[in-house]
Amino acid sequence: MTNFTRTNSPARELGLFVCAAFVMGIGYSIFDSIFNNFISERFALNGFERSFLEFPREFPGFLTLFVAVSLWFLCSRRLGALTMFMGAAGSILIGFASPSYAFMVGWLFLYSLGQHLFIPLSSTIGMELAAEGQAGRRLGQLNAIRNFSAILGSAFVFLGFRYLGLTFRGAFLYAAIALFLAGLFMFAMKPDKTHMPAMYLNLRREYRLFYLLSVLFGSRKQLFLTFAPWVLVTIFHQPTQTIATLLTIGGAIGVVFQPFLGKAVDTLGERFVLMAEAILLIFVCLGYGFSKSLLSEHAAFLVACVCFLMDQMLMSVNMARSTYMKKIVLDPDHLQPALTSSVTIDHIFSIAVALLGGVIWKFLGFQYVFLMGSLIALLNLFAASRIRIPKSHPVKS
Question: Alpha helices, DSSP H only, in the chain?
Answer without folding.
Answer: 10-43, 47-70, 76-96, 101-128, 135-163, 168-187, 197-201, 208-222, 228-230, 240-268, 270-294, 297-314, 318-328, 335-363, 366-384
